[in-house]
Each structure stands twice: as C-alpha cells, then as structure tokens.
C-alpha cells in the first residue's frame, strides 16, 4: 500500500510514495548501522553543531515547513508555524544540555573509583503519528540523537512529505548518512524491523492498540521500548477558579490542533457550584469557534486529518447521543468540502457510552459535574488512561492536593497541559510508559554502565 497524502481541506491528493521493498529496507537499516558507528564516535560538541544547524534551517524556513504540515494533516497554518519553531527551540535546548545530563557519575564504594557511565544503544526505531508531523519526531529524537543514538522512523502514511522533509533537514544540516532515516514501511514490515539485530530499541506514539502490539514485538526481541499512547485528559474546574481564564483555556485546550492531540483536555469536570456558570460560557465560546480554511489566519478550527477520522468521531458522538447524551452545541457533520467536525459540547453522557469509554480525537468536549475537588479527582482517575491533567483553582492547597492525587504523568495548574524541553513528557496506566524530553528523555535509550576499579 502506498503512502498517500490527501489535503483534508480540499480532499485532493498531494503526493504518493511506494512502500520500501525488501532491498530498499535492507539498505536503509544498513545505512542506520553505519551512521551509528560514525555518530557515536563524535563528540557532544560535534553532535550539537549538527543539531543547531537543524534548528537554524527550521527557523529560516518555518513557513515552508508549516505549509507542508497544514496541507498534509489540516492543522491551522498559525499552529503549524508554532510547531516548527517549537521544534527548533527544543533542538537547541537538548543540544545545549544533554552533555551535562549524561556526564559520568561517581559513586562511593570500597573501590578506588566507581560510578555510572551513560552510553548510546544504537538505532532506535520510532513509529510516529500524523497529528504533530514534525514535533512528535523531534520530541523523541532530540535527546536520543544527542545521546549518540541514531533514529530510523516510520511516519504515518498520510504525512509522507513531512517524513521526507525531516530526513532531508538533518542531511542538509550535515548529519552523517543514516543518523536520521525515513522508512516507508507498511504495518506488516514492522515486525521485521523490530526484530532486526541492527535495531536496538523501539518507541511509538500512537493508540493503545498499536502500543500493545509494539510492546509485544519489542518484548519478544528483548528490546527496550517507550510507549506514548492515548489519553482522556481531565480539566478540573474548582470553586475558586478564575472562570474567565478557565473557560478561555478550556476552548483552547479542546480545539488545539483541531482537537487531535493526546494531551488535549477531553473531560471537563466542574464542581457543582460553578457548573451552570461554566457551562453557559463554555457552550457560547465553543459555538463561536471559527471553522474554515486552515491557511486562513482567522480560522481557529481546521478539518480533521481524514474522512475516516471524521467518520469515526461522528460515529462516537451519534452513538452517545442515541444512548442519552445531549449535544449543547455542534454534534453533527457539516455539509460541504473538507473533513470538518464542529466544536461540540456533550452533557449527560452515560458511563457506558462511547464518548465516555473511548478517546475522542477531535473537537468534542464532555462536561461532567462533581460535588467537590475530591469527587472531581475521583472522576478524573476513573479511567484506564493517565497522560495529563489540568486543575483550575486559586487555592494553593487545592492545587497541591490535585497534584498529589491525580493519577497521571503530568499535572498543570491554571495552565493548559503542554510539552516543553525542561519537563519529562509521558503518562501512566494505559497511556504508556517511559519519558521524552528533559534528563529522563535523554536517558531513555542509553546503557547505564556501572564501573568499579579496585
């Protein structure tokens, strides 16, 4: 099956690329192995020089990169420009800091010298999603590459242009051949890649189902893996919250990236005393979200990535409505061109409805009412996922209680959950394991080698 890019706004095909045959895949994996030998022998300063050139190129041509992302997956052009610049910022951060994160550590033992060294593993096979076509790869790769590993990545089949752009970006920056390699491989070729002895570790950002499959394959080959999977992130509004800030942030949190983000807020849990006030303002604001051409600066909400994704979301909503949920705004596929779905607010969602039991990857918000903060946290934790959460409160004690009791990998207070190079990114429960970014991300794909000298 070819890798095909279709513009979600115009519904027109942009490009088509054949999957690698066995010979092409063998050449790519051989190139990655060769690249690792050269890259691991380089110094941190030499790696940082290449990485900073990548950042320079991105900063110089970010509108080009942004238009490519918008055309292939439908994110707004303004969001795409922000994504490209965030990639450059993160690359620069990791280029500056990873050496200090991986310095050998001395530990006191009976020996004359002892401690831990951090050494690269080899080629990391990365299976990447379409929703942040540049950022997802950079988020995983920046620290991994600076640690001395190389990356061979299978991107989503609907963003082939972004995959080729990334590979070319590192080549133009002077990275040795094989340091960053795009693999146009199909799903039935993934087991072959994971099992290959030249692949040292595996990472995936994707669905829970895909994560389970990859983890099984990695386990069968005794290879380290990192899983960044789905979420149903709670957005908790307490009695002391600044409601104006909370409502504005709630809209942004739900429609960012056209609602297609693993860390987008999806369940809005409001304490009873503020529920009516929040809901009135939230519904009005969601109803005012401008939907249209993602290249237009006035557009807030672009199309979903594909017809299949739009149809899945529509089915999840319609099934939930049939079971008793109510849509206070949105809730139906609009007529016309493009894979659009409107900003939607659901209430009275039954616990067994699809909107309550499945991740909604689109601009659909489920609003729930809780008695108080403790009840809100209990509702938030009553899910198999645990990626991120936000709490909106002006009470420091409430904030601290939420941070301590929410069963997630990341908690943000009075701010929308976001990724940044300084903080580790990842989840718990069925949202996966392992971390990207920060010192923890830089150390995911290294051999922590103990040494002891008598």
Keywords for this entry:
454 residues; alpha/beta; Aldehyde Dehydrogenase, Chain A, domain 1; Aldehyde Dehydrogenase, Chain A, domain 2; 7-stranded mixed β-sheet; 6-stranded mixed β-sheet; 15 helices
Written account of the structure:
With 454 residues, the protein is of the alpha/beta class. It folds into 2 domains: 3-229 and 431-453, Aldehyde Dehydrogenase, Chain A, domain 1 (3-Layer(aba) Sandwich), CATH 3.40.605.10; 234-420, Aldehyde Dehydrogenase, Chain A, domain 2, CATH 3.40.309. Helix content is 42%, strand content 20%. The chain contains 15 helices and 20 strands. It has helices spanning 22-40, 44-60, 62-73, 77-101, 135-146, 160-172, 190-195, 208-220, 243-255, 272-287, 307-322, 354-357, 373-381, 396-405, 438-442, and strands at 3-6, 13-17, 105-106, 113-120, 123-127, 150-154, 180-182, 199-205, 224-228, 234-237, 267-271, 326-329, 344-347, 364-370, 385-386, 388-392, 410-413, 428-429, 432-433, 446-453. Strands 12-13-14-11-10-16-17 form a 7-stranded mixed sheet, with helices on both faces. The protein has a 6-stranded mixed sheet with strand order 7-6-5-8-9-19, with helices on both faces. Strand 5 (123-127), helix 5 and strand 6 form a beta-alpha-beta unit. Helix 2 packs antiparallel against helix 4, helix 3 runs antiparallel to helix 6 (160-172) and helix 4 runs parallel beside helix 5. The mean pLDDT is 98.
